[in-house]
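hi! just following up on the protien thing from before. the input was this:
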Amino acid sequence: MSSWSNSEKFRACIESAEFGPLTDVYAPGALLDATVGAWRFQRQGQEAIVRQFESWYATPARLLRWRELPTDWGVVIEAEESQGDGEAEVYFRYVNLLFTDDDRITQHVCYCSGPWDVATVRRHAAEAPMVRP
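and the predicted 3d structure came back as:
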């Protein structure tokens, strides 16, 4: 199994909402293939991927969970986060499959729950309590 040395940089960008440093993390022809809620789309190239992250993160995220699973082809990141404050807060849960070559991401596959508002988070806690986090 390999370990992906850019994990700290990737995480720091999410927590700061500053994505310029990600340009060096992605290979020039990298592909982002994202499924968010009931929608799927793709972005190709370093600049297009960085712009996509900037549109997702207008403000820094507060990571609630971050788990990395190194693989022979890259890394799997399972994460939960919230953005915003109080009644305007939204929650996301996602899995990122980061395929790497020479320590740069060549393909990034993202599966995200999409944003849950505060009411949805409360309803979920009441109606579908989790056995494990």
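The two ends are 26 Å apart (CA to CA).
The chain has three helices and seven strands.
cheers
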